[in-house]
Design goal:
It is built from 11 helices and 9 strands. It is α/β, with parallel strands linked by helices. Residues 251-271 have a biased composition (Polar residues).
Amino acid sequence: MRSVWEGLTPELMAMIVKGIETDEVARVVPFVCTGWRDAVSGPDCWGNIELEQWCRRVDRPHVIDFAISCLVFRSQGNLRRLSAFRIGDFAFSFLSNFAKCLTVLKIPMSEVTDENVKTHAKCFAALKFLDISYCLSITSKGIEEFGRHCKLLEQLRRTLPPPGFEGRSSSEVDDSEALAIANSMPGLRQLELAYGRCCDIGLHAIVSNCSALTNLDILGCLNVMMQGDLKDKCHKIRTFRDPWDDDGYFYQSSDDGNNSDGAATDSSLDD
């Protein structure tokens, strides 16, 4: 009996599974029929790997690294988006071998180190969106390496733990990450630095050097005092969220004609 899926190209099959969670594509789809098993064995279904929710459920770094490595290998260099959680140096190193087309990388709370970023950042030259929130083993040195090699980078998420997390003090000041962003990522359009440690010096460098910024979120950056002309510079940015905005309100400049909800998104990179 002829399968309903017979005759579909691998490209069409990849489009069909695009909205299905990656772990289900790996675990369930191959058992639908021979055609789907063959399709999932090839690279076309692995251009977009969304594993963050699965990683959170598993929450075992060595299992996560192994699974990501297996799926990334299937992409055979066609990988464009990867969303994961708590990956380690092994998965990051392995990923670098298949990252030539990668434009979106989301790896919050991962254990990737500065040294690993320094070694492999050059392989991520196509990146446009990077999320390294809560990646506490990446410091200003790693951020600078990303900026030095990822010249197409437009969106950066770098949310840090709020005060009280693992003994972190609200008075701790460190402008090194903000200065690394300002000096190495001048093309950024959207930047999220919630609960960052910078003060006016680091923020002033960002708004001065990153002239393309349209969205800036510094919620919880309580060392920022907005002195001098810094407040005016920030409020010229189309969508700006200040350190004390605890009710979800975003300041939006009056000349903004788009993005009415003020939220920074990566929707432009979805396709």
